[in-house]
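dude i think i finally got it to work??
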Amino acid sequence: MTLANVLGLAREAKERHYCLGSFNAFNLESARAAVDGAEATGSPVVIAFAASHLQYTDFEAAAEATSILARRAGVPVALHLDHAETLDVVGRALRAGFTSVMFDGYGLSAEEKVRQTRSVTDIAHSIGVAVEAELGHITKVGVDEADRVQLLIDADHIAEFVEATRVDIVAAAIGSVHGQEEGTAKLDFGLLHRIQELSPCLLSLHGGSGMGPADVAAAREAGVVKISYFTGLSRAATAAVQRQLAEEPTTRVTELMQTVKDAMQAGVERQLRLYGSAGSVG
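look at this
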């Protein structure tokens, strides 16, 4: 298969009442974990390279490697740029063949965020690439803790924002936080339903590691089409490596990398089943 477009996958997820799993990758093993987990469960999958992780990888090489994995896969695989804060990074992703980009724009004035986001959609849409934007701000554990209420999405402005920017998917800040433990997220689903009433746009949720099964069920019920998940995979991989080194301190790095891949894949499979996409392909 060629790389899939996130917009097409998202529309199908909306119609069939499941959520796409979007998993951050930073090297070949983490990308393989996502693809192999998707194939094992018969699910479409989104492989997301976060702009903050570019320091750990060769961006263009990673995109090419992921494209090879996608062509070999028996399930749809999309390649997504996550939380880009500059137009330069977006441009690199578009040139590298990404099929979806997310422009964050946090810290910009409202007017400048709309202007820059619209410039992203104008370029991306001209080559068939989907665009996601964040409305409100999804913060991180230990950062902006006191300001979370102020960072929630402004539901009354969502229709205006979508019309002005022409984005395909909105990452809704309804209380999720990057880096949380599972089950600790405090999400405002009333706000989410309010957003759906005011705009027919497709919605995604970030900070998925903090969401427990009840949160995921509520998100699916509310029509969320994509959930981003990474911290849970990272912690599972780290724990697996620690166990292996405790048992055999001289374990070779090649074996450790396989341990990382296996632990991440198990987490991917678990989340895809929870998101309801398992069995939707094939």
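Residues 6-275 form a domain with the TIM Barrel fold (CATH 3.20.20.70).
im so relieved honestly
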